[in-house]
Amino acid sequence: MGKLKKDSSVALYQQLVNEIKEQIQSGELKAGDRLMTEMELSREYDISRITVRKAIEILVEDEILVKKQGIGTFVAEKKLTRDAGIFMGFTRSCILDGKTPSTRLLSAELVRASASDIRELNMAEGEKVIRLRRLRFCDGTPVLVEENHFSQKYAYLLGEELEGSLYEILEKHGTYTVGGKRRVSICYATQEESELLNVTEKDALLLMKDTCTNSENEPVHTCKSVINPRLYELVIASSPECGWEKV
């Protein structure tokens, strides 16, 4: 670690911000690592604790560091960022974000269609759906529990390798998803979800429900994702075409 330049035009707190960012980018500090205390940083860089505190506040506000009451300050887990307005599979989202996706299949079965399935997938009463439950990982860390429902038209899925991209399988069979509708809300971790996602039972989680359609606006599948919000960020972008009303 180098000393800060007190004769620089860059404020000392900003130099410390830059120094900590560089340590994270170089891998010297990794996600989950505990930062030195304010006193230790003050001694290490020969600066006041007020300067250290200001630098840490900036890094916490930018979600680069996270404070844990009574424990210390830690390097935050880097979130997978996803545009809420674009329907894109988890696999592709990870790859575009420079991360490595992986999947564990929890179950694949035929079950009786629920009222929601009948409505969302245009099914008849008494039909069955293909239910696929999977745990999705980003760089080896579990991020979300996903449940997909398909009509029996897509029964070939049960004979496929389901620990990769479902969209690649669908496209191989001539089905392309191009859009749909998305609902986002909050849910609370069940015992199973807490164990799978390494969170505490009843922790607040992000709940995302999608109905995905093909180019003819026909439903292909529904997907319910229960997401650890510490590791996942939904971004909502606006464009001039959407309009922006000032109030």
Shape from CA axes?
Answer: elongated
- Strand arrangement, major sheet: 4-5-6-9-8-7
Structural class: alpha+beta
Helix content: 25-40%
| Average pLDDT figure | 89
CA radius of gyration is 23 Å
Helix and strand run: HHHEEEHEHEEHEHEEE
Number of helices: 7
Per DSSP E runs of 2 or more residues, the count of β-strands stands at 10
Distance between the termini: 49 Å
Query: What oligomeric state is this?
Result: single chain
Beta-strand portion reads 25-35%
Q: Main β-sheet: number of strands, strand sense, barrel status?
A: 6 strands, antiparallel
Stretches where pLDDT is under 50 for at least 5 consecutive residues are none
Short note summarizing the structure:
With 247 residues, this protein is α+β, with helices and mostly antiparallel strands. It has helices at residues 12-26, 38-45, 49-61, 90-96, 115-120, 166-172, 191-197, and strands at 65-68, 72-75, 80-83, 101-112, 128-138, 141-151, 179-188, 204-213, 219-227, 232-235.
Describe the structure using short key phrases:
247 residues; alpha+beta; two-stranded antiparallel sheet; 10 strands; 32% strand; elongated
Descriptive account of the structure:
With 247 residues, this protein is α+β, with helices and mostly antiparallel strands. Helix content is 26%, strand content 32%. It has helices spanning 12-26, 38-45, 49-61, 90-96, 115-120, 166-172, 191-197; strands at residues 65-68, 72-75, 80-83, 101-112, 128-138, 141-151, 179-188, 204-213, 219-227, 232-235. Helix 1 (12-26) crosses helix 3 and helix 2 crosses helix 3. The mean pLDDT is 89.
